[in-house]
Amino acid sequence: MRLALVLDTDVMVAALRSSRGASRQLLLGALHGGFQLLLSVPLILEYEAVLNRPEHLAACGLSAAEIGRVLDDLAAVAKPVNLSFRWCPRLSDPNDDMVLETAVNGNADAIVTFNQRDFEAAGRDFGCAVILPGAALQQWRSSNP
Fold first, then answer.
1. Which helix or strand (DSSP H or E) is residue 143 part of?
2. Tell me, what's the pLDDT at 91?
3. In this structure, are residues 119 and 91 in contact, taking their beta carbons and an 8 Å threshold?
4. Counting C-beta atoms within 10 Å of the first and last residue's C-beta, which end of the chain has fewer, N or C?
5. Could you tell me what percent of the chain has a pLDDT over 70?
6. Region 6-18 average pLDDT
7. Do the beta carbons of residue 112 and residue 136 sit within 8 Å?
8. In the structure, what pLDDT confidence band is assigned to residue 125 with cuts at 50, 70 and 90?
């Protein structure tokens, strides 16, 4: 069974802003089908809104059209998650609720985020690991020798 992950928006930002690091490797892994990326409509819309901010476009050197193509490619390989159950508000940042809801409704193995503190208790409550990109990359690689 393939590893099922939800990438928080901060991981997507890091993946596009730097060609080095675990976040970029996870993005490439998702695009190549190395693990099951879980996406909901609210989450991909959040990715789009954040990644198209002028500061992120400037930092990653991509245009809005190029960001759109990356997101289209992700949507094409991701497992769509319908949000049958919603637990809003659950987290201190309302934008994080869609990440949690995608993970819970999609039966994710983990939420991958730099924001450990805000997700930790909710992840425990719902039986979903909350891990850093480096740990997710290591887990993915170890599950696919």
1. helix 133-143
2. 62
3. yes
4. C
5. 92
6. 96
7. yes
8. confident
